[in-house]
Design a protein that fits this description.
Elements (H helix, E strand, L loop, with lengths): L24 E6 L2 E6 L10 E4 L2 E4 H12 L5 H4 L10 E9 L5 E9 L1 H10 L12 H9 L4 E9 L3 E8 L2 H8 L6 E5 L8 E8 L1 H10 L6 H4 L11 H12 L5 H10 L1 E7 L6 E3 L3 E5 L2 E7 H6 L4 E6 L1
Helix pairs in contact: 8-9
Length: about 325
């Protein structure tokens, strides 16, 4: 049963049908957002009001918008953004092989926790591809809509394991021209001559860029997924954010396991380069072989820390 604040069924004092008690007010606090779900019960024809950050919309309008978005490709529209950012009980390993001209090959292996799969399925609109979390065709089409990106392979196993391989002609061009996030990364080159060989890369990651990335992914246009994120540019304690997420997911899994999974969730990125690495710097970035480095980003700090992390790798 959908509610104005997402798929959570137990809001306020339950009447046995998943809705709050008529005329009652239920608050959900996530970061700076004060979300209010109001189920009016006195006046016939009066509908629920959904309020977020001071902006109110009728419940029917919000749910209609949500269903229109999710029905495009079932829950794949919602879960596809996890290809960029993995959070809420997931494990992911990503590999990037950089070429000397700025080209790259990317590989992603992703496995969702069962409780998060159930959450995504609950968000699916009626009539959408029920039970389908990852839609390979939608994933391929979404990424190949960007110039210079080609999907080599998409495989789905047991509806919660995803393997994706793609190639990018020019990573710097993709970040700057296609994604319009030039501050995300820049290449160091052996000379200033156009087309000269890459000798290093500098990239920057903070909460603002993470949320901007969510905004440009082909599957990110979802109120129900943004509902899980902390408020933009606001101080949010990691402990409070974890507690909020446990509250959201507690009907799908035991709280103790949720806390463990959320605490261990991380994005792991392995970077391979064509020459020996001469320098690495940045929190969580380390050289693991002469031509390979690994970056590990715990997800909860990544989504709550406003301070940017700057990473540099030279080869």
């Amino acid at each position: 049963m959908q509610t104005p604040c997402g798929p959570r069924r137990r809001l306020g004092r339950s009447r046995g049908d998943g809705l709050p008690k008529p005329g009652s007010l239920s608050e959900v606090r996530l970061g700076r957002y004060r979300q209010v779900c109001y189920q009016a019960g006195a006046t016939p024809g009066t509908e629920a009001i959904y309020s977020r950050g001071g902006n109110s919309r009728p419940f029917s309008t919000m749910v209609s918008d949500m269903k229109q978005k999710t029905s495009m490709a079932g829950t794949a529209v919602l879960s596809g953004l996890l290809l960029i950012l993995i959070f809420s009980g997931c494990s992911a390993e990503q590999g990037v092989a950089l070429g000397v001209t700025g080209d790259a090959k990317l590989n992603l292996s992703l496995e969702l926790q069962p409780f998060f799969v159930e959450y995504l399925r609950d968000l699916a609109a009626p009539g959408a591809h029920a039970g389908v979390v990852f839609d390979p065709q939608a994933i391929r089409a979404g990424f190949e809509a960007y110039r210079g990106v080609r999907v080599q392979d998409v495989r789905v196993e047991d509806d919660r394991r995803l393997t994706l391989s793609l190639s990018v002609v020019d990573l710097e061009e993709l970040a700057g021209d296609e994604l319009e996030l030039p501050e995300l990364l820049s290449f160091l080159r052996s000379s200033q001559t156009p087309g000269s060989q890459v000798s290093g890369v500098i990239f920057r990651i903070d909460r603002g860029l993470v949320q901007a990335l969510l905004g440009v992914t082909p599957f990110a246009d979802s109120e129900s997924i943004r509902y899980l994120l902390p408020g933009e540019n606001q101080m949010v304690r990691a402990e409070d954010y974890t507690s909020d997420l446990v509250w959201i997911f507690e009907e799908y899994e035991e709280s103790a396991l949720l806390e463990q999974v959320l605490g261990e969730s991380a994005v792991v990125l392995e970077i391979s380069v064509p020459r020996d690495i001469t320098r690495v710097s940045g929190p969580g970035l380390e050289r693991i072989a002469p031509r390979r480095a690994r970056l590990r980003l715990p997800v909860i700090p990544l989504l709550t820390d406003v301070e940017p992390g700057t990473y540099r790798l030279e080869f």
